[in-house]
Amino acid sequence: MSNRPLASAGRLVPLLRAGLIAGIVVAAALYPLVAVTGLGAKATAHAMEQKTNILKTALPAETSYVYAPDGRTVLTMFYEEYRQYTKIESMSPNIQQAIVAAEDNRFYQHHGVDPKGVARAFVSNARSGGVSQGASTITMQYVRMALRDSATTPRDVQEATQQTSLRKVKEMRMAMDIEKHLSKEQILERYLNSAYFGHRAYGIYAASQIFFSKTPATLTPVEAATLAGLVKSPSEYDPITSDQKDATARRNYVLDNMARLGYLSPDAATAAKGQPIKLKLTDPPNDCAAIDGGHRSWGFYCDYLKNWWSSQPAFGENRLERMDKLRRGGYRIVLAVDPKTQAAAEKNVGAQDNTGSPFANGIVVAEPGTGRIKAMAVNRNYSLDLAENPNSSNPEAGPKVKANYPNTVAPLLGGGTLPGYQAGSTFKMFPMLAALNAGMPLSTAYDSPYTYKSAVYDGWAPSNASGAMTGRQTMWSGFGKSVNTYFVQLEEKIGADAGVHLAEQLGLRWRTDVDRDQASPAKVKKWGAFTLGVSDATPLEMANAYAAIAADGRYCEAIPVNSIMNRDGTPATYTTPGGVQREVAKPRCRQVVNADAARAATDAARCPTGDTPAKGSCGGWSTADSVRGTVGRPVAGKTGTTDSTRSAWFVGYTPELAAASFIADPDNPFNAVGDGQSQIPVNAVAQTLRDSLKGQPTRQFTPPSDQIVG
Fold it and tell me: Where are the transmembrane segments (predicted)?
């Protein structure tokens, strides 16, 4: 059946005559207003033209969806107005007919403004001395909503919605102009995608989902009439919170109009009016805290997505603009997280500790060669509810400050503004890699006493963790045993600045005043303690930095997505400084060190894990010799602890994955985790790599050349 109301030829002439008379009445009534406000002025005409051009193409805000890697499972959404744009072909005729019956019986007869309706409203308002009738057609309502949705300033919003005669006249002019450019079906489609139905439901798709848990294509006449009745006053006719008396009366009014317009037979309308309103409610998730509680750490990954998004120039000039795009742009975002790896990370972090501990044990897994983050897990619940959290362990925090466990939304794993945690000897990788890249061989040897006094660093005298480290060491044995005095001498040779700058090229950022000061041009050459890991870092940074070594020195920016599609189905893109257009979700990689240097670093990094290097000797023992047996395949990595074991780390990698795990108290860095818990990150990484790669073919590391071995 057509959506257009039935009208006999005999009714046509009286209708036209009535419309003409009403138009004359309205013109006479409005003329003084037009003259007084100067609507005919050139400036106003120009503004009207500009706004009309916006209306011809304006699309309302639309919900962005975040999917699991399968591209089908919705994890959460981002929206200020829950809406998914739906073509009119995908809407049931019932809702198209019901909205006409509810809001604008003469929609198919007028040209944007209904003269009869305006005349009626003018008489009614004159009698009441106020605004008792609005006479807004569907087209006029669409104009108002489109101006609101395209507004960029609070003043624009006010002008689009204020209850004044001037706004009404502008609205009429624009409605008539819009009808010259858009068909009735196009206007109805846009209207149904813009209207507010209550309960955060903007547009018919959202309304169908929230009230009936279905798509607009399958709405019955009763359901359609219920939804159409809401547009006039979503709160007054709300069938969820009221006793449904008013909602039912409004629905029945719409059904009667549908019958009067020929959309329903009288018998069908009577039968429909006899049915109760049967709701099937859906509460659509919004933002990261709404992710299914069964995925304890997925909220942290989602939060990383938000922080990453807010730093991407492709989505706006500043953070506010970019987040507005996320909540209004209608993007389809597929995360890079791997469910198998994520499950392994959650299991193995959870096995070491629980959410009742002040010590956060977290892990991040990155993919070499792409920078895609495959897992993020921490022994915390991602939740805004801190009511049951104990007080902070930091004595300087104050008596009312809550701890970050068991619930928190703090970005403990990286990607936000938190500085991270001192990473200890995991930083030894950076001066070693810089030395190898500069041409120094793996066999570079230094006599390494228990304590070494540095002339380069103004008499600074670090010591080793154990007297067993004393002796002549190479890169293999020095790295495997984590010999401080060896690496201070190596750093002296290449310059502290070389290691610092390489770390920066591999994605590390200095977030504390102390670190920024030490990394400054004036002081970086004297930052001897850098090689001992006195700087703060995040597991996100460390996993991705080590992933570059696994990828033969090719660094890729950390990225949380496999794809980002615009609302029109095209990939989201950005333009590089060189003018090249690229997809936002594509890996962004560059060669930081030569491949042979990276392979040599990996050969030395096999020593700490109990693995056997391809070319050299580890010196008989190592700091994490259980890792190779746990992982069950070639693996490299490095342990790291700080003074008094306030934090402990392990970063490990295979050719396929790189993982960084830490344990520390984020609230109080002076609350030492102790030696007894330093094995926790080692186990978390080893077990996560093992479980993630189970069933996959074993890949070998590429050995370094004889030239770099020395």
Answer: 12-34
**Owner of token pair 């870092």:** 537
**DSSP letter (8 states) at residue 569:** S
Q: What would the pLDDT profile of 402-445 be if each residue is shown by its tens digit?
A: 999 999 999 999 999 999 999 999 999 999 999 999 999 999 99
Name the phi and psi angles at 79, rounded to 5.
-165, 150
Rounded distance, CA 585 to CA 243, Å? 49
Instruction: Report the distance separating Cα 546 and Cα 537, nearest Å.
Output: 13
Residues 6+ apart with CB under 8 A from 53: none
Cα separation of 70 and 67, whole Å?
7
Identify the sign of the CA torsion 303, 307, 310, 313.
Answer: negative
Which residues, 6+ apart, have CB-to-CB distance to 137 below 8 Å? 104, 106, 107, 110, 112, 113, 114, 117, 175
- DSSP string of 40-98, one letter each residue: TSHHHHHHHHHHHHHHHH----B-EEEE-TTSSSEEEEE-SSB-----GGGS-HHHHHH
DSSP string, 346-376: HHHHHTT--TTSSSEEEEEEE-TTT-BEEEE
- Give the separation between CA 246 and CA 254, rounded to whole angstroms: 12
What end-to-end distance do the CA atoms of the chain give, in Å? 85
Q: What are 558's two structure tokens? A: 């950390």
Q: 406 preceded by cis ω (within 30°)? A: yes
**Cα separation, 74 vs 66, whole angstroms:** 6
DSSP H helical segments within 525-656, as ranges? Answer: 539-550, 595-605, 627-631
Tell me how crowded residue 501 is: count the other CB atoms within 10 A of its CB.
Answer: 15
pTM of full prediction above 0.90: no
Question: Which of the 8 DSSP states describes residue 698?
Answer: P
User: Residue 139 contacts by C-beta under 8 Å, 6 or more apart in sequence?
Assistant: 104, 107, 110, 112, 113, 175, 178, 179, 187, 191
Rounded to the nearest angstrom, the gap between the alpha carbon of residue 530 and the centroid of all alpha carbons in its chain is 33
- Find out whether 608 and 482 touch, Cβ atoms under 8 Å: yes
Alpha carbon 68 to its chain's center: 13
- Distance from C-alpha of 235 to C-alpha of 242, rounded to nearest angstrom: 9
